[in-house]
Structure formats: C-alpha cells, structure tokens
Amino acid sequence: MTTTPGTTETADTDAGTGGAASARVAAYLRDAILGGELRPGDRIRQEDIAVRLGASRLPVREALRMLEAEGLTEHEANKGARVPRLTQHEVEVIYRMRERLEPLALVESLGALGAVDHERLEDVQRRIEENDDLDRFLELDREFHLLTYSGCTIDPLNSMVTRLWNSTQHYRRAYVALGGRSRMWVVNSEHRLILDAVVRRDATDAERFLEGHIRRTRIELGHHPEVFAP
Description:
Layout: H1 18-34, E1 43-44, H2 46-53, H3 57-69, E2 74-76, E3 80-82, H4 88-110, H5 115-130, H6 134-148, H7 155-177, H8 184-200, H9 203-222
Antiparallel strand pairs: 1-3, 2-3
Helix pairs in contact: 1-3, 2-3, 4-7, 4-9, 5-6, 5-8, 6-7, 8-9
C-alpha cells in the first residue's frame, strides 16, 4: 500500500540549512511511523513528502537515510523507501535480542541514575497507571524504559536498543489493541518491580525483572499471528 501521512505543513522555512530541514522531515516521518499513521509495508514517496512539507528532495533523501539507520524505514532497489514489514519469526528473534541487550543496557545505566531520574520514572509510571489511551500508553511505556537506560554510555548498545524498539513498535501497538489492555495490571506490576530494582541499584533483580517483562510480551505476541498479517 502506498500512503503518506495525512497532515499538511507549511512551506519549509529551513531553506539553505540542509541539516535542519533533514531533521524536520525525519521528525515528521518518525512520528508518523511510531504513531501508526504509516504502517509496515507502506511506501514513502520522496516527491510526495517534499511537496507536503515544502522541502526539496535532498533533505527528504537524507531524512530517509537517518530513519533507515534507526530501523524505521528500508530501501528497496527500484522501488524506493518503505516502512519495514516483519514476519512473526523475525519479531520473535528481535524480542530475543531485546531480552539479552536491554538488561545489559539497564545494568550499565543503574549507577548513573540519581534521585531526580528516580522521581521522573515514578512520575511516568504513575501516568501509565492513570492512562487508558492506547497511543499515550505506547508513548509513556517507551519513555519509561528508555529513561531507565539513559545512564548507559555505550553508544553502540544504546543505538541498537533504540533500533530494536523502533522495529517492533507496530506489533506492540497491534497486540495491545487486540486486548492487551486487559493485561495492563501485569505491565504495571512488572514496571513497579523494575523501578524498585533501579532505585535500589540492584543489578541482579533489574536484569531478571526486565528480561521476564520482555519475554512475557514475546510469548503473548506469539499467540496472536493475526498481528503479523499484511
């Protein structure tokens, strides 16, 4: 399916500042992909995006290269850019990667997280527990987890963790929409265990709770093959 996001923006005010223009286009497309407006398999036509955002083709091409590095787009020879579509097996493997890499990032982060970070995490989790909107939950859940990794200074690990999160966003969204909200009490309980381990700087518990949290989602996703249908 070919589509572009459904909003219109004003003419590019970044003319002559290619980096700023590329960043603006990338931010627009990133929000559209992570927000579900662009879905796996959707084509992204450079000329359509350029016209919609009042930009030239050059910053659009650069933005697509940036997003490809983030795992949000891919380039097919003779076809152009699209949002990647993953098979159920590919998502299974990516979640297994997350089970190994994210606990490592969390442990690397623990010592750098202070009282202010702990308070922010408590605030995010409180908002998750008060929330009943799917899109807002996905935003807050991402904020919670990436904040717990924010003290990690190993750039290749950080980049890989973000890329893996990006590549599975659609499938998490589809799973929650199919009924995962009825299991939100489990998510909140697991978050509370992770948060407690972070505050105590207990690396063993932090690794164990986070690995189990990711593994449970992987297993439950496996029970919903319809999530992976085109």
